[in-house]
Amino acid sequence: MLKVENIKVSFDGIQVLDECALEVGEREIVVLLGPSGCGKSTLLRTVAGLENLETGKIVWNEEDMTMVPPHKRGFGLMFQNHALFPHRNVEENIDFGLQILQLNKTERQQRVKDLLKMVGLEKFEKREIGGLSGGEAQRVALARSLAPKPRLLMLDEPMASLDRALRDRLLIDISDLLRDLNQAAIYVTHDHDEAFSIADRIAIMHEGKIERIGTPNEVWLDPGSETAAQCIGHENFVNLDSSGNCALGKLGSGPGTVLIREDGISVVSENTEIVGEVKSATFHAGLTFIKVQIGDLQLSTSTATPVKISDQINLEILKTAVVPLR
């Protein structure tokens, strides 16, 4: 198990990680989710030993790794830009990651073949890097990262340069592969769809700290703060007055902000107390994603009921969908 214990990291006097703490189980995939500049990649590089920390510790299975050189930690790091060697072919790139295992040439060649089969690139050994597609280069980079059999694999926004369709396909493949290998992993992304697709737990980062951590279901149902809720894609934030009231009625016991989860808002045919006007409607994958104006509030939700802009519709909101936020 990895334990990151209250680490601090600064660059030129600017605090980037501020007493950041995290745990990752031996077979667990933890996703670091957050906007650019929140400290995700710095945390990854610090765990890898590529950045110096001011305070705190990095521990693996009770062994203090804080002062251990990067190449002796047994951790693998897959960079956002793949970092493949353009002057080496596919086999030579993966073989570079194998040399730390001190295998003979025949054993390394077999390991390369096994890894390429694992990532769906059989018989690609002699391909030049410049002749690979983006998805193929991604798979080679993954194979090279897995080559030394790391006890912890870290992936730094590995899908950032790929188009959506390819990203979705590769994400499923990577998720299945990591789980088949029982591979502990930290996966960095700013895309909440990626996070929910691959994570056992999601750690939402904000200003150098873990703002919220939990299973995908836990953080979706109760993100805890408005920052965390925005990060995972929620949109419906409602300010309450001193009595807990708003245009939708009484939603709390006093002033503050509540989240109304989109999945708890339904378009219904019968008359309800909540009536609004459809301001936008976008059809996708069998659902219509709408924004509805109710007094001075605008709520987002989706429905299988055919609706169009300017329709007056009735809404029903589940009590469990109203979540108080810090």
Task: Name the average pLDDT.
Answer: 92
Under CATH, the topology of the largest domain can be stated as Rossmann fold
Number of helices: 8
CATH-level-4 superfamily name of the largest domain: P-loop containing nucleotide triphosphate hydrolases
End-to-end gap: 31 Å
Q: Which outline best applies?
A: globular
Largest sheet: spatial strand order: 6-7-8-3-9-10
Main β-sheet: number of strands, strand sense, barrel status? 6 strands, mixed
User: What's the CATH architecture of the largest domain?
Assistant: 3-Layer(aba) Sandwich
Poorly predicted regions are none
Strand content: 25-35%
CATH class of the largest domain: Alpha Beta
What is the N-to-C order of secondary-structure elements (H for helix, E for strand)? EEEHEEEHHHEHEHEEHHEEEEEEEEEE
Number of separate domains:
2
Q: In oligomeric terms, what are we looking at? A: single chain
Fraction of residues in helix: 10-25%
The radius of gyration computed from the alpha-carbon positions, rounded to a whole number of angstroms, is: 24 Å
Key terms:
single chain; 326 residues; alpha+beta; Rossmann fold; OB fold (Dihydrolipoamide Acetyltransferase, E2P); 2 domains; 6-stranded mixed β-sheet; 5-stranded antiparallel β-sheet; 8 helices; 20 strands; 35% strand; globular
